[in-house]
Structure formats: structure tokens, C-alpha cells
Amino acid sequence: MDFNEEIKRRRTFAIISHPDAGKTTLTEKLLLFGGAIHVAGAVKSNKIKKTATSDFMEIERQRGISVATSVMGFEYNGVKINILDTPGHQDFAEDTFRTLTAVDSVIVVIDAAKGVEAQTEKLMKVCRMRNTPVIVFINKIDREGKDPFDLLDEIERQLQIHVHPLSWPVGMGQRLQGVYNIFDHKMYYFSGNDKTKAEEPQEFKDLNDPEFERKMGRNAQILRDNLELIEGVYPDFDQNLYREAKIAPVFFGSALYNFGVQELLESFIRIAPSPQPSQTIEREVKPEEEKFTGFVFKIHANMDPNHRDRIAFVKVCSGKFLRNTNYYHVQLDRQLKFSSPTAFMAQKTSVVEEAYPGDIVGLHDTGNFKIGDTLTEGEKIHFKGLPSFSPELFRYIENDDPMKAKQLAKGIDQLMDEGVAQLFTMTMNGRKVIGTVGALQFEVIEYRLLHEYNAKCRYENISMYKACWVKPNDQMEWEDFKRRKFKAMAKDKWGRDVYLAESAYELQMSQEKFKGLEFYFTSEFE
Ligand code: G4P
């Protein structure tokens, strides 16, 4: 197969949802279709159950599982599919944000009874920022749920995207008769069994067909009325608008009963984009370019403290990645060679000789990589789109064992490279502040510092609202601001100036007073 065909047949995407909407179940069913796994229950959920939110030992256990499920690759009808896993727990939202920089599209799973939930909204914000094409799967229609029209309205309103239903449920819960596929005019009947092979659907181009009436009973008229409404409200489905992230096609189904999943998969393959160009600070990189480029979007530390190596997950953006070949690490300004790059097929990993745009390779790392690092064949480019987001919680981190200062520094450094949390160094006194998305990370950091680096840390509370990266449109004003806010200024891991605002009020005052400065809650804003 030639290089361009290899690119065209790839689909790299993530499934996102609020915890419990059915992401793990759907992932598993997709893998079953791809023949990547053979029994249900094979995908271990890497979510942290609600009952265990404060149990970070559970997180450690899950961390072991999640290497295997970080990327799940499989083949289906000649298409190479790469599903990138995202942690379900909201305290790890930052991991999910970064993973979303490596995908070309997403499937959003929504619970039909609960509708749009908080985490879905947050993640969709990132998709909108990046113009990522989105397909919506409304799950659990085997249970009583909200009215489908209400669900669509809710999605449009809360996720701020136009929708277009491509399938429509006939009944719901106990009265679920099936789903009518608007795209291919077929009726799929719900049998209530978990089947890997979907039952043969029936084609009804004309819904006034007496056979349709006979099969569906009074639901026939209801469906006809609904479809008429849909046609009136939602214009024809336009694949280009979906690719431009302006419209989200919607499917209904039940992941648990494997209902509607195959249609979702087949439509996904048909409409979802193959690897797309990536933006760097210097220029746009096209997947078809001959020379290899890629970036690190995730780093996973080994669980075994005796083998402190890590796996850096690299997204191939252009060209072909080859084993045992020298590549240029832009940030280190050094050539590196990889003898055992790993590919992820289903839940197995294996050494690969080559990888194509859209693929993810795992590189064993002894501390050379940070999130966002670039590999090329020599060109100095820097991939965009891996911004730091302002943490929600802040604490000072202090050394609690004077004999282990070095270990602590190293531990903090490496954990930050992995993206566990963010570190800010106060300009005034060099004190270190850790910022996280959720409270769990503080426990994780303390635990891992002790167990992996033999270092003891102590936290000190600090009252802080947000970390702001500043775009100084007026240099004089910027210098003045830094002087006045000296106590609140810090450097992030990359040495950029960050303003740590103490309260929403203080930030608002700064915004009003310093008109020549723009304040952002992410480090990338152009
Ligand atoms: P998540 O990864 O998004 O967090 O959700 P997950 O797939 O783990 O699903 C959450 C719960 O919802 C699971 O039940 C799962 O069986 C159930 N579920 C998923 N899809 C459907 C569906 O289409 N219909 C129905 N009725 N239920 C569905 P659980 O009892 O919490 O977990 P488990 O003990 O069954 O694993």
C-alpha cells in the first residue's frame, strides 16, 4: 500500500464523556467489532469509581491498567482505527485536554437520561477551541430517558454546536422498538440481546409502506411525524460542515446491548477525517510530507520504582517513523535513536518497524522527554496546541526532609514533565507552588514522591484564584504591572511569566486598570 493510502485509511479519535455515560462500554464494543478483543469485560475501566474518589491507591492500581488502554488500535474493513483513551475522572481533565490535541475527531457519549453533564461541557470547550469534528452518541436508550428532541436542544444549547440526527429512536426504555437510520433509510430492531453481529436491518425508503405499518404498529405514524419535524428543523446533513466542526451528527443506541454501535462505527469510518495537518509555530505540517515529524502528548511513568523508565507517547504528524533511525529532538537539540518503539494494537503492545501519520508510537524514555517535545528529521519546529490550562487549586510545596532535597527536586521535576500538575516558581522568593485541576493530584504527588523518589514533601495552603498568562500589547504597561504585582508574579516550567491572581476581584481590577494587557487562563492564546 502506498504512503498516501496508508494515511487516508487511518482514523485517530477519542471518546469523551462525563463519567458513567458509557465510554468504557462503548470502547469495548467497538473493539469487539474490530475483532481486537473477543470477550466482553476485557477492557478494564480506567475510571476511578465514585466511591473511591479519595483513595489514591486505587489511582495507582488504575495507572498500571491505563498504559495498556492508552491507545487502542485495530483494523475494521481495511481501516486502521486508533482510539486514544482519556481518563474519566475530572481531576485528570488536563490529561484529557492533552490527548485531545492528538486526535482528528471525537465521539461524545451522552447518557439519554442525564443529558449533557458538567464534564462533557468542559471537554467540548476544548474541542471547540481546536475545531475538532464531533459525533454525538446518545447512549442507554434501553432505559427511560429524556425526550430525543429535548436532548438535541440541550446539546445545541450547552455544547454550543449545531446537531443533525442521523438516526432516530422508536420508543425508549421498555418500549424501545429500535432505531431508524435516517442516513441509509433502514430500521434496526432492538432485541434486548448483546450481539456482536447486529440483526439484519430492514430497508424502508418509503415509510408509508404497509409492511412498515404492520411491523411498527402505531409507532409508524409517530416516527413519520418525528422525521417530518426533523426535516423541517435540521437542514440536510453536510459532511463538510461536520469536518469543519460546525455540525455534529447524532446517533442513538445502547452500548450495553451493543445496539446502534455498528452503525455508529460504520458511519464514523465513512465521515470522520483521516489525519489532518498540524500547526506549528513556524508553519503548517501536512501528513503527506515525506519527512517525519511528531510530538509528545503524554508521558507515562513506569509503576515499578526499580525501573524508573517512562513511555513517551508520540503522535506521528507527517512522514514515516522508522525504528533505529536517528531523529532530531528539537527542544534538546540532540539526535536520538529508538530501538524498540512500541505500537498499540488492541491491548497488546509490540515493537514496530514503522508508523504512519495518525499513529501513536510509544518510546521508552529515561528522562529526555517533556510533554510538547518535537521530533523531526532535522527541522526546528514547535507544535502548537499543547497549552497549559490554569489550575484550579494551588499549594506551596516544601521539602520535609532536609537530607533529601535533591531527590525532591528531581521528583517534582519529573512529575511535572509527565504533566501530573503544574509548577510555578514565585519570582519574589523562589518558593514553589503546585497547581492542579483536582485535589486528588496533591495526594498522588505526595505518594509518588515518597515511593518513587524517596522524598518527603509538605504542603502549605495558599489563597489563589487563577494562573494568568499575559499578552502584553503595551510593553511599558507590562513592566509597570510586573513591578506592582511583584508578589504575585511567578515563572511557569518554561520560564514564562505568570500572574497568580489571588481572587476574581483582583483579576478584574487588574483587567480594568491595565488596558494594554490581555489576561488568559491558558498559555497559548494566538
Ligand atoms: P464510563 O466509562 O463512561 O464511566 O461508563 P461505563 O462504560 O463504565 O458505564 C457506566 C455504567 O453504565 C455501567 O454500569 C455500564 O454497564 C452502564 N451502561 C453503559 N452503557 C449502557 C447502556 O447502553 N445501557 C444501560 N442500561 N447501561 C449502560 P455499572 O453498573 O456502573 O458498572 P458495571 O458494574 O456494569 O461495570
Describe this structure in words.
With 526 residues, this protein is an alpha+beta fold. The chain has 3 domains: 7-70 and 87-95 and 103-271, 3-Layer(aba) Sandwich (Rossmann fold), CATH 3.40.50; 278-376, P-loop containing nucleotide triphosphate hydrolases (Rossmann fold, 3-Layer(aba) Sandwich), CATH 3.40.50; 393-520, 2-Layer Sandwich (Alpha-Beta Plaits), CATH 3.30.70. The protein is built from 14 helices and 31 strands. The strands form 7 sheets. Strands 27-24-26-25-29-30-28-31 form an 8-stranded antiparallel beta sheet. It has a 7-stranded mixed beta sheet with strand order 2-3-1-4-5-11-6, sandwiched between helices. It is globular, with a radius of gyration of 25 Å. The two termini are 39 Å apart.
Q: Short description, anyone?
A:
By secondary structure, this protein is of the alpha+beta class. The two termini are 39 Å apart.
Keywords:
3 domains; Rossmann fold; 14 helices; 29% helix; alpha+beta; binds guanosine-5',3'-tetraphosphate; Alpha-Beta Plaits; 8-stranded antiparallel sheet; 526 residues
* Strand segment count: 31
What is the CATH class name of the largest domain? Alpha Beta
Query: How would you state the average pLDDT, rounded?
Result: 87
Q: What is the CATH H-level superfamily of the largest domain?
A: P-loop containing nucleotide triphosphate hydrolases
The rough form would be described as globular
Instruction: Record the strand order, biggest sheet.
Output: 27-24-26-25-29-30-28-31
Fill in the CATH topology of the largest domain.
Rossmann fold
Q: Beta fraction of the residues?
A: 25-35%
Secondary-structure-based class equals: alpha+beta
Cα-to-Cα separation, first versus last residue: 39 Å
Q: With helices defined by DSSP (H or I, 4 residues minimum), what is the helix count?
A: 14
In CATH, the architecture of the largest domain is 3-Layer(aba) Sandwich
Helix content: 25-40%
Bound molecules: guanosine-5',3'-tetraphosphate
Quaternary organisation of the protein chains: single chain
Sheet with the most strands? Answer: 8 strands, antiparallel
- Note poorly predicted spans: 46-54
Query: How large is the radius of gyration?
Result: 25 Å
Tally of discrete structural domains: 3
